[in-house]
Task: inverse folding
C-alpha cells in the first residue's frame, strides 16, 4: 500500500508540474489578451501587477522539480486569488476573473481531499462576497464605464479567450490526471501480471521443492529402514555374543569347579595314602597297648591282686586306645578314595567321626550339642566323601566361633527325607556373601588361611548324594547349615 | 573236645605274643612270622581250624599268603587282621570269598572270639 500511495503522489506531482507549466502558458496568453483588451484605455496598475504574478509563475515553473507538491498548488491558488482581487478592484462585477473561483478549487481537488477543495471554494466565495460588499457599500469604485466595457468587442473576445483557456486548462489537467492514473493502472496491471507469472514460477519451484523433499524423505526413510535392519542385526549379533559370553562364563565356572575338585581329589588321594600308612603304623602300637592291657587284665583276674585302681588303670588304657583308634578310623574314612556310592553311610557315625577328628580344635572352647533323632539314620553313598562334606561344614562352624560357643547338631527324619542341621553361634555370613560361599575359591579368610574350596567340594558331594544344602545366617548371631537327603 | 587250632601269621613278634596270650586260654594258637612259614605249618599241620593273617608283611602279604594257603586247605575259614582300614584290596578279597571276614587292629578280643566260636559251630 505505501508503494501505491507514493505512486499516487508521484502522479499528483507530475500533474502539478504540468499544471504549473500550463498556468504559465495560459497566464501569458491571458495577460496578452488582457493587454489587447485594456490597451490603451484601461491600461494601469492591475496590468503591471499581473505581469509580476506571471513572472513569479514562470519562476516557480522553472524550479518546479525542486518544490513540493503542496507549495506549488497553493502558490497557484494564491496567484489566482491575487489575480481575482486585482481584477475585481479594477473591474468590479464585470471582472472576468470570476472564472478563477471555479478554477482554484478544481485544481486543489486534484491534490487535496474533497472537503478541503470545498473549503477553498468557500474561501474564494468569501473573498468575492467581501469585494462585492465593498463595491455595494461604495468603498470601492469601478474604474471603467460598464456600458463602454460591455459594448467593446475586445471585452467579448478577451472573455471568450479567457473562458476557453480556463476550460482548456481544466480539461488538460483532468485529462493529464486521468492519463497518469490509467498509465499507473496499466503499470499495476503489468506488475500484477509479472507477479502472477512469478507466483506461477514460485508454485512450480514449490512443487519441485516438495517433490524433492518427498524424494529426499523417501531416501531418508529407506536409509532409516536400512539402519534399523542393521541395528536389528547388530542387536541379534550382540545377543549371540552375550550368549556365548554366558556360555564361556559357565564353562569357566565349570572349569574352576573341576580344577578345584581335581586339586582336592589330588590332595585327598595323597592324604588317603598318607593316612592309610599312618593309621597302620599307629594301629599296630595300639594293638600292643590294647593287647597288653587285655593280657594284663586276664593275669590280674586270675591272680589274687585286689586293687580297684587296677581296673581304673586298665579302663583308662582301653578308653585311650579306643579314642585314638576312632580318630585313626575317622581319618581313614575321610580320606578313602573309592568312588562308589553304594556304601551304607550312617549319618550319626559320620558326624561323630568328624567331631572326633576336630576334637583338638574344639576342646574347652566349643560345646557340641547333639540332638540326634532316635533311629539310626543311614543313606546309600560314599562314606569317605560324606565325611569330607560334614568335616568341612563343622570346620567352618568351628572357625566362625571366636572364643567360646556352641555347635548344635540336629538330625530328623520325615517324609522320606533325612535332614541334618548344623547350627553354630559364630560370626555369621554377610547377606551379600550368602550366595557365594559355595563358589570355588571364595573365601573371607586371609590369604593362606583358607583355599575357598571347602564348601564348594561339600556342595558337590552333597549334590552327588542327591542332597541339598542351604545356608541361613545372621551376621553376629551365627549360621545354620541345612543338609537334606531324600531316601534313595 | 579238643581246642580250636588257630594259625596266626604276623611279622611283628609282639603282635604274635599278644594274640597268643589273649586266645590261648580257650584255643590252641600257632604263630608264624611270615607267609612262607605259615604255609610250611599248614602243610605239616593239617588240623588247623582257622587262619588269621596280618596284611602287610615281608616276602608275601596277607592276601598272597591266604591265596596260597587256600590251595592247601580250601575248607577252613581265613581272616585278615590288619592295622589298615578296609580298602579296595581287602574289599575285593571279601567279595571273592577269599577271606570270611576282616578285623582291624587294635583287635577286639570279644569280636574275634565270638567269630571263631561261630565258625566252628556247624562242625
Result:
Amino acid at each position: 500500500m505505501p508503494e501505491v500511495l507514493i505512486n499516487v503522489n508521484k502522479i499528483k506531482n507530475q500533474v502539478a508540474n504540468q499544471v504549473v507549466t500550463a498556468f504559465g502558458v495560459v497566464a501569458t496568453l491571458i495577460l496578452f489578451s488582457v493587454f489587447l483588451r485594456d490597451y490603451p484605455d484601461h491600461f494601469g496598475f492591475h496590468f503591471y501587477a499581473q505581469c509580476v504574478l506571471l513572472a513569479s509563475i514562470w519562476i516557480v515553473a522553472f524550479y518546479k522539480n525542486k518544490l513540493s507538491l503542496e507549495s506549488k498548488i497553493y502558490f497557484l491558488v494564491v496567484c489566482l486569488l491575487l489575480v481575482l482581487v486585482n481584477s475585481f478592484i479594477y473591474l468590479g462585477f464585470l471582472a472576468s476573473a470570476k472564472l478563477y473561483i471555479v478554477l482554484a478549487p478544481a485544481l486543489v481537488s486534484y491534490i487535496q481531499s474533497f472537503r478541503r477543495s470545498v473549503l477553498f471554494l468557500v474561501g474564494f466565495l468569501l473573498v468575492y462576497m467581501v469585494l462585492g460588499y465593498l463595491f455595494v457599500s461604495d468603498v470601492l469604485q469601478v474604474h471603467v464605464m460598464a456600458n463602454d466595457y460591455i459594448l467593446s468587442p475586445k471585452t467579448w473576445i478577451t472573455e471568450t479567450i479567457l473562458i476557453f483557456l480556463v476550460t482548456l486548462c481544466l480539461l488538460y489537467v483532468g485529462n493529464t490526471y486521468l492519463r497518469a492514473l490509467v498509465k499507473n493502472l496499466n503499470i499495476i496491471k503489468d506488475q500484477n501480471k509479472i507477479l502472477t507469472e512469478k507466483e506461477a514460477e514460485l508454485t512450480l519451484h514449490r512443487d519441485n521443492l516438495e517433490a524433492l523433499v518427498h524424494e529426499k524423505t523417501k531416501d531418508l526413510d529407506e536409509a532409516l529402514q536400512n539402519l534399523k535392519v542393521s541395528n536389528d542385526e547388530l542387536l541379534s549379533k550382540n545377543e549371540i555374543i552375550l550368549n556365548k559370553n554366558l556360555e564361556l562364563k559357565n564353562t569357566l565356572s565349570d572349569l574352576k569347579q573341576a580344577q578345584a575338585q581335581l586339586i582336592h581329589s589330588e590332595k585327598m588321594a595323597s592324604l588317603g595314602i598318607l593316612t592309610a600308612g599312618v593309621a597302620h603304623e599307629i594301629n599296630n602300637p595300639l594293638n600292643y597297648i590294647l593287647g597288653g592291657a587285655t593280657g594284663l587284665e586276664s593275669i590280674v583276674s586270675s591272680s589274687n591282686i585286689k586293687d580297684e585302681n587296677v581296673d581304673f588303670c586298665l579302663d583308662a588304657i582301653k578308653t585311650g586306645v579306643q579314642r585314638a583308634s576312632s580318630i585313626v578310623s575317622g581319618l581313614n574314612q575321610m580320606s578313602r578314595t573309592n568312588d562308589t556310592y553304594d556304601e551304607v553311610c550312617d549319618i550319626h557315625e559320620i558326624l561323630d567321626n568328624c567331631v572326633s577328628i576336630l576334637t583338638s580344635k574344639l576342646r574347652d572352647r566349643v560345646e557340641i550339642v547333639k540332638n540326634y533323632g532316635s533311629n539310626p539314620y543311614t543313606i546309600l553313598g560314599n562314606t569317605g566323601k560324606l565325611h569330607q562334606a560334614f568335616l568341612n561344614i563343622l570346620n567352618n562352624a568351628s572357625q566362625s566361633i571366636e572364643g567360646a560357643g556352641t555347635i548344635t547338631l540336629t538330625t530328623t527324619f520325615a517324609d522320606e527325607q533325612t535332614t541334618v542341621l548344623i547350627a553354630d553361634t559364630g560370626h555369621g555370613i554377610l547377606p551379600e556373601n550368602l550366595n557365594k560361599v559355595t563358589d570355588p575359591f571364595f573365601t573371607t579368610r586371609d590369604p593362606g588361611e583358607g583355599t575357598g574350596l571347602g564348601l564348594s567340594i561339600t556342595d558337590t558331594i552333597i549334590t552327588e548324594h542327591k542332597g541339598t544344602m542351604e545356608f541361613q545366617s545372621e551376621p553376629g548371631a551365627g549360621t545354620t547349615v541345612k543338609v537334606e537327603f531324600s531316601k534313595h | 573236645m579238643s581246642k580250636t587250632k588257630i594259625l596266626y601269621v604276623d611279622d611283628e613278634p609282639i603282635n604274635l605274643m599278644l594274640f597268643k596270650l589273649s586266645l590261648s586260654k580257650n584255643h590252641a594258637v600257632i604263630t608264624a612270622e611270615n607267609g612262607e612259614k605259615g604255609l610250611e605249618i599248614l602243610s605239616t599241620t593239617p588240623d588247623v581250624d582257622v587262619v588269621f593273617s596280618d596284611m602287610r608283611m615281608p616276602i608275601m602279604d596277607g592276601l598272597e599268603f591266604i591265596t596260597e594257603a587256600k590251595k592247601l586247605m580250601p575248607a577252613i575259614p581265613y581272616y585278615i587282621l590288619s592295622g589298615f582300614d578296609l580298602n579296595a584290596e581287602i574289599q575285593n578279597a571279601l567279595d571273592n570269598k577269599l577271606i570270611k571276614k576282616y578285623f582291624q587292629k587294635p583287635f577286639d578280643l570279644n569280636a574275634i572270639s565270638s567269630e571263631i566260636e561261630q565258625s566252628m559251630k556247624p562242625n
Notes: Chain A is about 70% helix and 10% strand. The first helix of chain A runs from residue 2 to 38. The radius of gyration of chain A is 69 Å.
